[in-house]
Amino acid sequence: MFGRLREDIASIRARDPAARNSWEVLTCYPGLHALILHRWAKACWQAQLKWLGRFISQLGRMLTGIEIHPGATIGRRVFIDHGMGVVIGETAIVGDDSTIYQGVTLGGTSLVKGAKRHPTLGRGVIIGAGAKVLGGFTVGDGAKVGSNAVVTKEVPAGTTAVGNPARIIERNTVSAEPDQAAARLFAAYGVMPNGDDPLSKALHGLINQVAAQEQQLQVMLAALQGAGIGCRRLEEAGQFDAAQLNRLVD
């Protein structure tokens, strides 16, 4: 038990630059407190003391603002950062070295008892603040889910998902193995560099293409005017404001 606790504290200190020492982590981090209480609740749940497991779970919810069903499976070195409003459902599985930020829901979309209703997170997964991962599918090893994303289908290993509904925007190139955790790029809140929404990227591409065509038309218009050919209607059409449209898309 104490070995597991030391492992959790070391993991939090490695991933949170605000953690100054082990005593601060032990006494001031609700994510750690919620995990400790969950282990007690899980032990009761597995011993068929269902009510006691649920009671400890609700006690943890009142004390930390984090609700973890005693039936959920939580791996080693999981870090729940800040944690207020986190909800982890009964059949959820959270893999080793995963990071979950505040306001995250690992929820279910099925009402069938005994079914796998909640998601499975692989190793080293990062779920950004406010994200909702809903359903009995898998979020692969090393995947990241951006803040406020709504995920309702499988996320392949090593990719990043953003948006509502969530879309895959890129494949991560860093490993999420525990022995490389200190060296890997830690994407706080699941946000990656240059990780724009793919729909936004497509719209920007179309706008820029139209702007390039507009520029070509202006060159043609100048050439026609230089040749003495009147093009009054083209002149009256006005300029295409690509910059303004790009700002609207953003």
Largest sheet: 6 strands, mixed
Q: Using only CA atoms, what is the Rg? A: 25 Å
Averaged pLDDT: 83
The helix-and-strand class reads: alpha/beta
Q: How many helix segments?
A: 7
Termini Cα gap: 49 Å
Shape, per Cα inertia axes: elongated
Helices and strands, in order, run as: HHHHEEEEEEEEEEEEEEEHHH
Please state roughly what percent of the residues sit in beta strands, choosing from under 5%, 5-15%, 15-25%, 25-35%, 35-45% or over 45%: 5-15%
Strand order of the largest sheet: 3-6-9-12-14-15
Taking pLDDT < 50 over at least 5 consecutive residues as the criterion, the unreliable ranges are 178-185
Q: How many beta-strand elements?
A: 15
Helix content: 25-40%
What is the element layout, followed by pairings?
Layout lengths: L1 H14 L6 H7 L1 H17 L3 H15 L2 E2 L4 E2 L4 E2 L6 E2 L4 E2 L4 E2 L4 E3 L12 E2 L4 E2 L4 E3 L3 E2 L4 E2 L4 E2 L7 E4 L4 E5 L26 H29 L5 H5 L5 H8 L1
Parallel strand pairs: 1-4, 2-5, 3-6, 4-7, 5-8, 6-9, 7-10, 8-11, 9-12, 10-13, 12-14
Antiparallel strand pairs: 14-15
Helix pairs in contact: 3-4, 5-7
What does this structure look like?
- It is a single chain.
- The protein is an alpha/beta fold and 250 residues long.
- Helices cover 38% and strands 15% of the residues.
- It contains 7 helices and 15 strands.
- It has helices at 2-15, 22-28, 30-46, 50-64, 198-226, 232-236, 242-249; strands spanning 67-68, 73-74, 79-80, 87-88, 93-94, 99-100, 105-107, 120-121, 126-127, 132-134, 138-139, 144-145, 150-151, 159-162, 167-171.
- The strands form 3 sheets. A 6-stranded mixed β-sheet has the order 3-6-9-12-14-15. Strands 1-4-7-10-13 form a 5-stranded parallel β-sheet. The protein has a 4-stranded parallel β-sheet with strand order 2-5-8-11, with no helix packed on it.
- A hairpin with a 4-residue loop joins strand 14 (159-162) and strand 15.
- Helix 3 (30-46) runs antiparallel to helix 4 (50-64) and helix 5 runs antiparallel to helix 7.
- The protein is elongated and about 90 Å long.
